Amino acid sequence: MVTVRKLPEEELFLPGSVACQGCPSSLGLRIAFKALGKNTVLIVVASCTSVLQGSYPYSAINLPLYNVAFATGGASASGVVAGIRALAKRGVFEEEPTVLVWAGDGGTYDIGIQSLSGAAERETDFIYVCLNNEMYSNTGTQRSGATPLGAWTTTTPGGKAQHRKDIAQIMIAHKIPYVATASLAYPVDFYQKMLKANSIRGTKYIELLAPCPPGWKFAADQMIEVSRKAVESGMWLLYEHEQGDTRLTGVTRRIIEGKVKKRPVKDYIEIQGRFSNILASREGQEAEEMLESEVSESIKRLQGWVPEYI
């Protein structure tokens, strides 16, 4: 049984980055690198991670690294994978490196979905991690397709009026071999899903919820608490879809099995300043009820995909 204490000690995400305090990307990268190891090529799609890594030659990331444009995550990975295959035929590698794309929700849900979809359709062999902070944090906290109903952003000052997309299910519809969701409140679950993704050939997609302290308006030391309450309230569901079968994981599984009581959505949204406008208004009650309804529908839908609940 893997525990946090048993994770590899080697750090490939080095001290001294320029990340904000409580940055979810820093912790996510540390865990991902521990799972994949040194034989990894990292592709960073334009995002906060493009900045927090630091400037060459003082980067906090101790891996080969490409910084690429917003729309090009899948296309860039396809090119790197093709280059690796060509070099492998010449005997350059004892073992081919893992190609890891690290992108935000803006570069995944919206601007980058076309190149990701194309790479998935071509069955390109790489791991794609969407670090989902539910807004364009690096360019001014604008709304994205991942922003939930009612959330404040600079372009939705009264609260977003639309529901968010479900990009993980869009990726499942591509019939790729592995799709998973993860939370930083449960690092071992994320680590194991990264390990599993690395053991499978083809396109693998993992979506990691990334609560952003300045963008979501909560204290930096509450990042893990917010991550945990997202799962406990059902606003973020943990599961993996492997070779056509869906399996619930962690707290989500225990909630659906009745072993853990689900938190009210209000417990999750009331600790974030981005929901303060709707909570203080009459429309806020309606939005809260709509979010609870959305969670209930998502859980029912997820149960319908898991063989043991059908």
Order of helices and strands: HEHEHEHHEHEHEHHEEHHHH
Strand order of the largest sheet: 2-1-3-4-6-5-7-8
Distance between the termini: 29 Å
Radius of gyration: 19 Å
Task: Assign the CATH topology.
Answer: Rossmann fold
The figure for the number of domains is 1
Mean pLDDT: 94
Task: Report low-confidence residues grouped into runs of 5 or more.
Answer: none
Total helical elements: 13
Helical amount among residues, as a percent range?
Answer: 25-40%
Helix/strand class = alpha/beta
Would you summarize the structure shown here?
This protein has 13 helices and eight strands.
Care to describe what's here?
- The chain has one domain (4-309): Thiamin diphosphate (ThDP)-binding fold, Pyr/PP domains (Rossmann fold), CATH 3.40.50.970.
- It has helices at residues 24-36, 48-52, 73-89, 106-110, 113-121, 167-172, 187-198, 213-216, 223-232, 250-256, 265-269, 276-279, 282-305; strands at residues 40-45, 65-68, 98-104, 126-132, 178-183, 203-209, 239-242, 245-248.
- 39% of the residues lie in helices and 15% in strands.
- It has an eight-stranded mixed β-sheet with strand order 2-1-3-4-6-5-7-8, with helices on both faces.
- Helix 3 (73-89) packs parallel to helix 5.
- By secondary structure, the chain is of the alpha/beta class.
- The protein has 13 helices and eight strands.
- The protein starts with 23 loop residues before the first helix and ends in a 5-residue tail after the last helix.
- The chain is globular, with a radius of gyration of 19 Å.
- The mean pLDDT is 94.
